[in-house]
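Side project, low priority. Logging it here so it doesn't get lost.
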Amino acid sequence: MNTTDISVEESLKNCKGIAWDECHKIYILMDDEQMELMKEYGYDPIIPATGDNYEKLLSNLIDWYDNSCGLRFIQSVRTNLIDPNEGFINLVGQFEEWFI
């Protein structure tokens, strides 16, 4: 898994949607393949980005983060056909705090 200086907010501006497992896994989905995979995995809620709902996406992420268990994290994920694990970027790691 990669770690970068990319922020949650920056990732949201270019995403296809967001997903949460209702416990601690929060994902910013960067392509259509990840949107479909999260649906197949049974993630609910999944909120698609529509181009004009940035504030709604950010508001949902804040709410999900505040209501997640202590193992919470936020990652962006992009499809990587060679090594799927390389598609994850850690934006807010477990036991880190996210301040907005």
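Brief comment: The longest strand covers residues 25-29.
Revisit when time allows.
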